[in-house]
Design brief:
By secondary structure, the protein is an alpha+beta fold. The protein has helices at residues 42-50, 103-110, 113-122, 130-134, 146-164, 192-196, 210-215, 250-258, 274-290, 310-325, 374-377; strands at residues 2-3, 18-20, 36-39, 66-69, 79-82, 94-95, 237-241, 263-267, 297-303, 329-335, 345-348, 352-356, 387-393. β11 (345-348) and β12 form a beta hairpin.
Length: 396
């Protein structure tokens, strides 16, 4: 073995004598900890096979993409990408997949705090072998968010790779960050508190005259009307709400786009169990609040019948139907018998389609049975899950 800077760059690679050789290292997620190279020539492999101590990997694992980590650690475990031009060391156990499309989402899953806690229970020792990692339960609904998860992993890999390459010992080092043209540029990143309570933050010099601010207002913002009491102009836009954000309600998200609708169709495959049906009932409450008292509105739900609590699901829908009729809301529903329904959106008969990446399930857990909890009574006091909503105009 050699450090990679000890050998000419032209002699390193899958078709050359020397291969990159991950062999563990300090805590580092996503990317990096590749300082070593190993002689993988035919002569060297013959020697490894004859040596009584050395162990040579099966040929089908050579140059295969996977996930690697450090075998021995007394701290937090971290998982990294294993690239195709690398041969891993026993000090850096690795996982491989029949379908390499699963690598990114599994890497994201392994780097969560959830897995960290599970592994502490499964194996409280210093050594973390392949067997312990392979026995982790994989979340059954992880495929539903595969596109979004993979996008996040790509961003994490890019950030980690750029950080790793900022060290002179890195394989792809080019220049020190301090010498980069953008070094020293100040970028202000808003906290959730700044976005939730903007009136309490911000320097005087950052404030602009109202006319100038209006001219420079963007079409989209990270925190638009979802947390504002001012109703926006109805236009196509996107709302992005961050994890743990508060102040978000169905009234603020939907009222302006549902106003004056005669028929509203909700498609969401996860209106099945109690808390999901309660979310849907709160959505109908928003409709009741915004519609004129003498008007009638048809609300139709397309969802999937629950395999275990189907009868309770139907009973709940019947109760909603009976109780909403007195308020002028005619509720109907249908079940997708194919059970292949994944789309989540709201369509109105007056020309709007609202795409919901999480459906109506936007709130984190709260005490749903505590009648004296504000988060139970008022949506604005609940913490949100991260989600996005897109408003599209379907009619001129």
């Amino acid at each position: 073995m050699r450090q990679h800077w000890e050998v000419s760059l032209h002699k390193i690679g899958c078709q050359n004598k020397w291969w990159q050789h991950p062999k563990g290292g300090p805590f580092r997620k996503w990317y990096g900890n590749v300082d070593w190279i190993i002689d993988w020539s035919e002569e060297a492999r013959i020697h490894y096979r004859k040596d009584k101590v050395a162990r040579i990997l099966p040929e089908y694992l050579w140059g295969k993409k996977g996930i690697s980590w450090t075998l021995i650690t007394s701290g937090q475990i971290s998982f990294r990408i294993l690239k195709r031009n690398q041969i891993f060391n026993l000090a850096a156990p690795s996982l491989f997949f029949h379908d390499e499309d699963n690598i990114e989402k599994c890497l994201a899953y392994l780097n969560t705090r959830y897995v960290e806690k599970l592994l502490q229970v499964i194996n409280p020792t210093l050594n973390m072998n392949v067997g312990e990692v392979r026995c982790l339960p994989l979340l059954s609904n992880i495929d539903l968010k595969e596109k979004k998860i993979n996008g996040i992993v790509v961003s994490c890999l890019k950030l980690s790779r750029n950080d790793w390459n900022s060290y002179e010992t890195s394989w792809d080092f080019t220049t020190l960050p301090i010498l980069h043209p953008d070094h020293g540029t100040t970028v202000h990143v808003k906290s959730l508190e700044e976005e939730e309570y903007p009136q309490y933050f911000g320097a005087v010099e950052d404030q602009k005259p109202e006319a100038e601010a209006a001219d420079q207002a963007p079409e989209q913002s990270q925190v638009p009307a979802a947390v504002s009491d001012t109703a926006p102009e109805l236009k196509e836009r996107q709302v992005i709400v961050k994890e743990n954000q508060r102040g978000v309600t169905f009234d603020k998200l939907f009222s302006d786009y549902l106003q004056d609708a005669g028929k509203i169709t909700v498609t969401d495959s996860y209106i099945r169990i109690y808390y999901q049906i309660r979310n849907f009932m709160e959505f109908i409450e928003t409709i009741v609040r915004i519609k004129p008292k003498d008007d009638e509105v048809d609300v139709h739900l397309i969802t999937v019948q629950d395999d275990f609590k189907g009868p309770q699901q139907i009973d709940s829908f019947i109760k909603i139907q009976e109780n909403c009729a007195i308020a002028g809301v005619h509720f109907t529903w249908e079940f997708d018998e194919t059970k292949t329904l994944h789309a989540r959106h709201i369509v109105t008969d007056h020309g709007w389609k609202i795409l919901l990446d999480r459906g109506l399930d936007i709130f984190q857990h709260y005490e749903i049975n505590d009648s004296f909890s504000l988060s139970n009574r008022l949506q604005q006091y609940r913490s949100c899950k991260a989600f996005e909503i897109t408003y599209l105009k379907t009619k001129g």
